[in-house]
Design a protein that fits this description.
Blueprint (H helix, E strand, L loop, with lengths): L17 H8 L17 E11 L2 E10 L5 E7 L4 H14 L7 E4 L8 H9 L3 E4 L9 H13 L9 H17 L11 H8 L1
Helix pairs in contact: 2-3
C-alpha cells in the first residue's frame, strides 16, 4: 500500500448513547401482551423508509391503522429526523383522532426517541409501544407496505426532484387505500374495509 501511495480509510468509531438505550429499555412492546386489533383506531403503526431522488436518499414517514391497513398519515423530507415522523403523526391525528386507548407502535429508530416526537405522542395521548431490538417482524404491516410501495411503483421510477417523488407516492397511497385489494381484508381495499367495520 505504501509503495502505491494507498491509505486505509478508518471507519468512524461507534459511540454508545446510554440515554437512548435507557429510553428504549423503558418502552414495552404492547402488541405482545394483547390480542390482535379488532377495530379501527386501536393500534397505529409507524415506520420510515428511504427513497432515492437524483442519486441521493430522501425519506418517507408513514402511520398506518393496524386493523384496517389504511395509511392515515405520511410525510416526506430530505432529512431523516424527528420532524419527519412528527408530521406524519400529526396528519394521522387530524385524519383519525385517537382514543385514550390507542397504541402507537414503531421500531427503535432514533427519530422515535426524540424529545420533540415524544412530546407529540404525549399531546395526542397515545400509548407508546416499540418493537423488540432486532425483531423487524414486530412491525410486519409496515414492512409489508413499504415492500408493496417499492416493488409496485418506486423501483420503476427515477425521481429527479423530491416534489416528483411526493406526487407519485401520494398517488400510490391513494391507490393503496382506495383500490388495492388485500387478501387479509377479504379482498377489499382498506377504505372499503374501514367503512364495512365502522
Amino acid at each position: 500500500m505504501r509503495e502505491n501511495g494507498l491509505q486505509a480509510r478508518m471507519a468512524r468509531r461507534f459511540k454508545f448513547h446510554r440515554h437512548r438505550h435507557a429510553f428504549f429499555e423503558g418502552i414495552p412492546n404492547l402488541l405482545l401482551d394483547q390480542p390482535h386489533a379488532s377495530a379501527p383506531n386501536q393500534v397505529w403503526v409507524g415506520d420510515v423508509s428511504y427513497i432515492r431522488v437524483r442519486g441521493k436518499w430522501s425519506y418517507i414517514g408513514i402511520v398506518m391503522d393496524h386493523y384496517t391497513r389504511k395509511v392515515i398519515g405520511w410525510s416526506f423530507s430530505e432529512r431523516h429526523d424527528a420532524a419527519l415522523v412528527r408530521e406524519a403523526l400529526l396528519m394521522a391525528v387530524h385524519a383519525s383522532p385517537p382514543t385514550p386507548h390507542t397504541i402507537f407502535h414503531s421500531d427503535q429508530g432514533s427519530e422515535y426517541a426524540n424529545r420533540e416526537y415524544r412530546a407529540a405522542l404525549d399531546e395526542a395521548q397515545l400509548r407508546v409501544s416499540m418493537s423488540r431490538k432486532g425483531h423487524c417482524w414486530d412491525n410486519a404491516h409496515m414492512e409489508s407496505f413499504f415492500g408493496s410501495l417499492k416493488t409496485e411503483m418506486v423501483y420503476f421510477q427515477k425521481f429527479q426532484q423530491l416534489d416528483e417523488a411526493v406526487a407519485y407516492i401520494t398517488d400510490y397511497i391513494r391507490f393503496y387505500n382506495c383500490e388495492r385489494l388485500h387478501s387479509s381484508l377479504g379482498y377489499r381495499s382498506p377504505t372499503e374495509f374501514e367503512v364495512m367495520v365502522s
